[in-house]
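job 3f2a | input accepted
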Amino acid sequence: MRLEGRNERRVTMAIPVCLVIAEKLLFADQAMTVNVSSRGARILTRRRWQLEEQPRLASSSGELRTQAKVVYCEPATDGLFCVGLQFPSAVMDWKPT
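job 3f2a | predicted structure (97 res):
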């Protein structure tokens, strides 16, 4: 459930990313962005994430790495989930692959 609106418009961009939970370094969730902004992203993933989880996000190229916080997780189609991520600081180097 989303409680607040966005402060910044998101751009549709499909970028392969990986989400890693700090306590479970051996677990890496492969995902794909749906849209992005400097302060957050909406991604598609096979894992149901919990609110407030704080994975590290990295692009598959390794050029982009940032901490994130899960702000929502909604069921999508085909067993996938749409996850909203919020970043603690601006990410300006989103590059489509």
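job 3f2a | The longest strand covers residues 28-36.
job 3f2a | closed
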